[in-house]
Write a structure and sequence with these properties.
This protein is α+β, with helices and mostly antiparallel strands. It has three helices and five strands. A hairpin with a 6-residue loop joins strand 2 and strand 3 (about 65-70). Helix 1 (about 5-20) runs parallel beside helix 2. This is Hydrogenase-1 operon protein HyaF. Belongs to the HupH/HyaF family.
Amino acid sequence: MLMNAPAILNEILQALKDLYEKGEEHIIYINKLPLTEEDRIAILDTLGEGQVRIRLDSKTQPAEWRETGINGVWIGVFFDRDNKPILETIEITIFPRLASSQEEDIEESIKLLEERLKVLFQREP
């Protein structure tokens, strides 16, 4: 029985319009909503399957995003250390924010690359 799928799909549609018109991103925490199995199937079937999959391999909190057949709509799943899903999202965005490089990671990468270049140039005659 469909209970909340139509409302969620309409929320996604409005969020997609807001992303296009205003550049506003939106996240729906789907595992926090009372969804029936039929709701989940209807949402996934309506959104379809896209071509892009992103995997964040982290020992503490691995995550995966996959773009749906609707550009700009991503399904995100965050896992615990035992690889069990702990958070599921639908993100309406150009690219999932948590999958992109974080500022502190870039800062650390600058230092790492500088060190590697020092070692590389010290070897050259």
